[in-house]
Amino acid sequence: MNKSFFEVFPTLKVNEDIQLLFQGVEVAKVATNTRRDFIKVHIVSTHLIQKQRIYEIEKMLKEQLFGKNYIQVQLVEQYDLSAQYTPENLMNEYLDSIYLELGNRSVVERSMMQGASYSFEDENILCLRLTDTIVAEGKKEALSSYLETIFAERFRRPIEVRILYEAAKDSKLKYNDMKLKQEVNAILDHAEAMQAEKGVSEKQEDKKESKAGKEKVSPGKEKRSFSAYGKGKRDNYSPIKRNSDDPNLVYMSPPVWLIVLNIFYGFCGSHTVANALNGDGQTVYLMFLVV
User: Fold this and answer.
1) Closest CA to 84 of 48, 43, 119, 44
2) Angle at 279 between CA 274 and CA 282, to 5 degrees
3) Model pTM?
4) pLDDT digit of tens for each residue in the chain (291 aa)?
5) Rounded to the nearest 5°, which phi and psi values hold at 221?
6) Whole-angstrom Cα distance, residue 135 to residue 221?
């Protein structure tokens, strides 16, 4: 037995518009999968509800009832409409919802539908005229199946979809070609401007560095020399440092302590290394300082 929507979800908080819209909606079934992370709520309505409103309710159910849990909620609509809702009337009134739903399925299918024209023959034959392209040829079956499914299962108005093709208008093709060329030219101009600006900036930096190199060393300061190992490395750089407070405390950079350990391991063996570091007599501490 069906129950009213807000009887099944009494704690759901909605605005006044949705409250009125779902006032006569009934819940026929609530189902879930074996992992319990996907819930389908089957609803029945005697009036048409646009898909945007359905998506809003799905989001509210997810956020208010399940919070941050990874659970997806889907409303499956079924309409019990009056006879005045013929397939053609439904198509005219529900077209924006079809665009929205197709956009969530496939951007290509939505674009095809938006660029198509349609008419009905014998009440239940939908003649859909698509622009003759390779993409339209490849997607026609998916688009036809979607339309036939929602009319049969959602509206209980079975239809037959016939795909017709029409050649693209020459003026439209020329306009798209011109628009594309303009966009490409704009991108190229922007790239050239950025490259020129980068070149000017690099020249200014070179001048600053050249000027700084010619400046005299301040009195009382000795000019530093740099080794061939890289910028910022002094000739008197030593990988081994000794703490002034404890002469037995030695700091080594990573390459040095790796070499030291390799020597100890190769010469004495791992057990002897432990004795050498922790045995009797003067104890030597190796502190590996990452620099």
Assistant:
1) 48
2) 125
3) 0.59
4) 899 999 999 999 999 999 999 999 999 999 999 999 999 999 999 999 999 999 999 999 999 999 888 999 999 999 999 999 999 999 999 999 999 999 999 999 999 999 999 999 999 999 999 988 888 889 999 999 999 999 999 999 999 999 999 887 765 555 465 445 555 655 766 677 777 777 666 666 766 666 666 555 455 555 454 444 444 444 555 555 555 555 555 555 555 444 444 444 444 444 444 444 444 444 444 444 433
5) -115, 135
6) 74
Name the residue among 77, 66, 171, 169 with its Cα closest to residue 115: 169
Please check whether residue 14 is in contact with residue 60, taking contact to mean a CB–CB distance below 8 angstroms: yes
Closest alpha carbon to 79 in 89, 70, 69: 89
Q: Please answer whether residues 151 and 87 qualify as being in contact, where contact means their C-beta atoms are separated by less than 8 angstroms.
A: yes
Radius of gyration in angstroms for the set of CA atoms belonging to the chain, rounded to a whole number: 38
Residue labelled with tokens 């349609």: 118
Q: Give the separation between CA 41 and CA 25, rounded to whole angstroms.
A: 12
Work out whether strand 285-288 and strand 240-242 pair parallel, antiparallel, or are unpaired.
unpaired
Strands 125-131 and 117-121: antiparallel
CB 141 within 8 A of CB 100: no
Q: Return d(Cα 4, Cα 191) in angstroms, integer.
A: 60
Pairing of strands 38-45, 285-288: unpaired
* Tokens describing residue 258: 């790796």
Q: How many residues does the chain have?
A: 291
Render pLDDT for 37-69 as a digit per residue (tens, 0 to 9): 999 999 999 999 999 999 999 999 999 999 888
**Cβ-based neighbour number of residue 194 at 10 Å:** 10
